[in-house]
Amino acid sequence: MPKDISANDLYLFYKSGVTALTGYKFSIDGDDDVKFIANNVQVGNYIPLAIKRNPIRSEEGTILNELELGLDYVDLQFKNAIMSGKYNNKLVKVYLVFPVQDMWDQWDVDAEVMLFQGWTDEPKGDEHWITLTVNPFPYLDRLYPKRIYQSGCNWTFCNDDTCELDLSNYTTNVNLSAQSDGVTLTCSHGKAVNYFQPGFVQIKNGALMGAVRPILENDSGTIIVRIPFDDTIESGVNIDAVKLCAKNYQTCEDDFSNYAEYGGFPWVPKAPIM
């Protein structure tokens, strides 16, 4: 990564007598909330800790390799935190730290320059040392499914950022015109045969308010649910009948005229090209 060095700090790289230390910032519960420094005294908010690491190298001058850190246990509490997984998959940043002494002979941070950042793996250790491997680009190392393409739509139906349809346009609110046995709901919804397949019914008031069941089939005046409701439903009870998407390209085009936003591949290649 490019080094962003403040012009005010450049003199520290040329000034005689200046000592640079290596600091490590771990983002555990917040931004850079655990800080260690390879030193025997505290520097600013950096906690002193015996740390060893392999050199930060690059491949052909462009890509940084993984970085291995060795941390010395300072107390049982720190060891327990490591073994609990608290440091697994956490962001860690490595800094070049320039310390300065104040009037009370306490060490503070004069300047710091980031050298490296990445995400930790699962730590390994013994009674004295903990070893962390830090990968700068962990997402490139993940194992992904071989089948990258799939014909079914990946989007959530009526999601504003993907599908871009509005669920309210496919929700019919109506009252039951007769008592229901919990399977057949008589109501004048006026939709075409099997318009709500797939879809669901939600009871909006009465004793079963909030209950939801998937729709098996419908005609213009009734809805039959796939799984019976727990009890009979009185006439006049208000329901929502919601049309859903079958997530194939024919449905997307024929029922919703939304093929431009389709989130799948109708024809899956025999071999992935990515």
Could you walk me through the main structural features you see in this protein, from its secondary elements to its overall organization?
The protein has helices at 76-83, 249-254, and strands spanning 21-27, 34-37, 47-48, 51-53, 58-59, 63-64, 67-72, 91-101, 107-120, 124-125, 129-135, 171-175, 184-186, 199-203, 212-218, 222-225, 238-243. With 274 residues, the chain is mainly beta. The chain folds into two domains: 7-141, Beta Barrel (Thrombin, subunit H), CATH 2.40.10; 167-243, Elongation Factor Tu (Ef-tu), domain 3, CATH 2.40.30. The strands form three sheets. Strands 1, 2, 3, 4, 7, 8, 9, 10 and 11 form a nine-stranded mixed sheet that branches. A six-stranded antiparallel sheet has the order 12-17-14-15-16-13, with no helix packed on it. The protein has a two-stranded antiparallel sheet with strand order 5-6. Strand 14 (199-203) and strand 15 (212-218) form a beta hairpin. It is elongated, with a radius of gyration of 31 Å. The mean pLDDT is 83.
